[in-house]
Design a protein that fits this description.
Layout (H helix, E strand, L loop, with lengths): L1 H17 L4 E3 L6 E6 L2 E9 L11 E6 L10 H15 L7 H11 L32 E2 L3 E3 L2 E9 L3 H11 L3 H4 L3 E11 L5 E8 L6 H11 L5 E8 L8 H16 L9
Family: Belongs to the IMPACT family.
Pfam family, one: RWD
Subcellular location: Cytoplasm
């Protein structure tokens, strides 16, 4: 137990040195602290450390506070649940984890602070379009975001009428400030057009954008869905933790949801 206490005190001292204005010791033994989230200081979280931390037990998020003038921008209940998931994901028995936790949070909170509230994903019914800005995303349909071990995945789908239209929309969506912060913007599209001779011409392509094999998997998805004149992209904001093959599950899941929300049907869609 003494070793645990020493590790905790050393960790708290280190956090205070790195973020001198962000940490408050709630009790003398540091079993409860209050931290302002770096780069998002209007978010204040209260964390408790059990006697078994860090050898056996993870910290717990007791409370989250956001000033009343920011309350309408965030779903506090969802954020508290999300932050606890991140805290659990970075904890490994025997190692302190708060610095890693704070680093991961900055990746999770990829949205600028003047954007509308983060969805309450636990309900799954709130319109994900709240996350989509009006200009670069006009005409796009969004999936719900998925967050796993600090990384966030979100897909967008739109109708395209030609190769040029697909490239233009892809370039335009990448101008959005949040999209520029994404680690990868993977894409796939399929177009069928009738030329001046009445011949049906088909085009399809994909781009991994550094996430090996992701684009081809997305193209395979929309191929087996048998949809045309569609572009789907999946943005990933990397949180620092590698999640292995699970990333492909999240990429395909969000991509399929966005395509369905965009109203695509099987062959013969608009």
């Amino acid at each position: 137990m003494e070793t645990n206490h020493e590790d905790l005190m050393d960790e708290i001292s280190a956090i205070e040195a790195i973020y001198p204005e962000n940490l408050e010791r709630k009790v003398e033994d540091c079993s409860i602290v209050i931290i302002k989230v770096p780069n998002h200081e209007h978010m204040q979280i209260q964390i408790s450390f059990p006697a078994e931390y860090p050898s056996d037990a993870p910290p717990r998020l007791l409370e989250m506070n956001i000033p009343s003038d920011n309350n309408d921008k965030y779903d506090v209940k969802y954020l508290q649940h999300l932050f606890q998931e991140v805290l659990d994901s970075v904890f490994h028995p025997g190692a302190v984890c708060i610095f890693d936790f704070l680093t991961e949070l900055d990746g999770v909170l990829y949205e600028s602070e003047d954007v509308d509230a983060i969805d309450d994903a636990s309900h799954g019914a709130q319109d994900a379009q709240d996350l989509v800005p009006l200009d670069p995303f006009e005409g796009w349909f969004a999936s719900d975001p998925i967050t796993d071990r600090g990384s966030t995945f979100m897909a967008f789908a739109t109708h395209v009428s030609s190769e040029e239209d697909a490239f233009e929309k892809l370039d335009k969506i990448k101008t959005d400030s949040k999209m520029r912060k994404a680690s990868h913007i993977m894409s796939a599209w399929r177009v069928q057009v009738v030329n001046e001779r009445g011949q049906q011409i088909k085009f399809q392509d994909c781009d991994d954008d550094g996430e090996t094999a992701a684009g081809s998997r997305m193209l395979h998805l929309i191929t087996i869905m048998d949809v045309w004149n569609v572009m789907v992209i999946v943005a990933r904001w990397f949180g620092g933790a590698h999640i292995g093959p699970d990333r492909f599950k999240h990429i395909n899941s969000t991509a399929r949801e966005a395509v369905v929300r965009a109203g695509f049907e099987r062959a013969g869609n608009k």
